[in-house]
Amino acid sequence: MDGQENEQRNTGDNGAPATGRTRRWTIRPRRTGRPDRSSRLRRFGMALAVLAVALAGVVIGTYAGGHVSTDIGPFRAQLKLAPAVAGSTTVDIPPLGALQLDSHDGPTHLTVELGSLDQRRTEAIINDPASINRASQSAVEDVRTGVMRLGVRTLGCAVLITLLLAALVFRNVRRTAWAGGLAVAVAGGSLGLSAATLRPQAIEEPRYEGLLVNAPAIVGDARRIANDYSKYAEQLRLLVGNVSKLYTTVSALPVYAPAPGTTRVLHVSDMHLNPTGWSLIQTVVEQFDIDVVIDTGDITDWGSEPEASFVGSIAQLKKPYVYIRGNHDSGKTAAAVARQPNAIVLDNTTTTVAGLTIAGIGDPRFTPDKNTSPAGSGLTKQVAERVIGAGEQLATTVRNSPQKVNIALVHDPASAGPLSGTCPLVLAGHLHQRQVSKLPQVPGQQPTQLMVEGSTGGAGLRGLEGEKPTPLSMSVLYFDQQKLLQAYDDITVGGTGQSQVNLERHVIKEPAKGEQVPVTPTPTLGPATPTPTR
């Protein structure tokens, strides 16, 4: 009873704590279920926090580590992985555009960015027909290997970032481990779902963006061109070897023998990214003892930055290389050429090389979509004014030159008209076929000859659209000690679909009295009519 009395004495009659110095303890209420619910809420909140940290780690890790470099055929490529609402693939070809593919499901987006073109591997593909099939097979394997490396790297980075983030947030080993496990599940599950739902046939139904929107219309039936290209590569396999027979052909021509002091110029044009052209140029430069190489433009096809690596073969020629920009060449293309130690880029300027004073101007247009017409015929008034205006600018530069100009360079022959009488010779390209003629003579002025070169690159892929591939062509020009053209050799490789080399020698002579000389009319600004595009 003493305990009860003490309890009553300390709590009072109404159960409230008593006041006074005699208090020794208090009676608290018995625990109910509220603390249990609070504990469950805390555990639920902690689980959400672990999940949030895991998801954040996966996203950050994917962006930080979801990229690898790999070789795909002749290209150097970047593969990138990023979180996405719906699975898809982008094949990015800067700055031309991109292909969008509905390639897989899952919350991942793959970007394949094609970079620089490896010239050595490209030449191997062109020169060896069997390597085309090997390249097609290896490209698929290259992509598969690159994607697997990308997946492993992404998973590793996602887990590592998650563990570091969880350790900083929770400072608890168990919760950090849970976050890492969730990261493995989320990242691995997303990658696994993407791999399981892969649709290889999506490559047959791409969506084009940028300049590539024009690709189907420009290239035509890709399968047919691929077949033609395979046949063409097989036909070209022996070309470089056949070029060695050129000297034999030259020695059999008794018509013209270059005198001592002759300057030999190799005129090339419209390479259009065909690496086979470089092999031919190198052989002719060596065997004909060329002093200067002149390029009248369209060395590339789109003028893009990845194509700039194509001009690296210029330095290997170890001869002065005088170049003007074509309508397929961009400012970046011209800059890449200018970086070559033996190259000279002319743009309404002059230079003196091997005793020859050469003036040149780049094409005023940049039309990588090939939406332009050649030679003044069919040009709209605005475009014709620009093309002819370029020739007028160069004519002014030639007249004001302190040294007499021996050769003037334009890309489109439509620019040549204003140059009549300013110099003895104008070189051009653009048409992908040879033409030699006289410009309309200005009374009291010297006659001017116009020489239009064919395509040294066989017009690139577009040269395969017809039944027969476009021939690879170039010309060797012989100048005497007075720097006047005395003769020229037209060299043609392939052409009729056969692996053959043709050389035709022409000697310049004054026309006899009454003899008619072909004259190239000066372009006029008439109504536009449809013409082939270049």
Describe the 3D structure:
This protein has 534 residues and is of the alpha/beta class. The protein folds into 2 domains: 38-214, no CATH class; 236-507, Purple Acid Phosphatase, chain A, domain 2, CATH 3.60.21. 36% of the residues lie in helices and 20% in strands. The protein has helices at residues 2-11, 34-65, 119-127, 129-170, 173-196, 215-219, 222-236, 239-243, 246-251, 276-287, 314-317, 331-338, 381-399; strands at residues 67-72, 75-83, 88-93, 97-101, 108-117, 207-210, 263-268, 292-295, 321-323, 343-345, 349-353, 356-360, 407-409, 425-428, 435-438, 449-452, 472-479, 485-493, 501-507. The strands form 3 sheets. Strands 10-9-8-7-17-18-19 form a 7-stranded mixed sheet. The chain has a 6-stranded mixed sheet with strand order 1-2-5-3-4-6. A hairpin with a 2-residue loop joins β11 and β12 (356-360). The longest helix is centred in the N-terminal third of the chain and has 42 residues, at 129-170. It is elongated and about 110 Å long.
Distance between the termini: 117 Å
- Report the total helices: 13
Kindly identify the CATH topology of the largest domain. Answer: Purple Acid Phosphatase, chain A, domain 2
Low-confidence stretches: 211-226, 234-244, 250-256, 371-377, 522-533
Kindly report the average pLDDT value.
76
Number of structurally distinct domains: 2
Q: Sheet with the most strands?
A: 7 strands, mixed
The gross shape turns out to be: elongated
Helix content: 25-40%
Oligomer status: single chain
Q: Rg from C-alpha positions?
A: 37 Å
The overall strand count is 19
Strand order of the largest sheet: 10-9-8-7-17-18-19
Q: What percentage of the residues does DSSP assign to strands (E)?
A: 15-25%
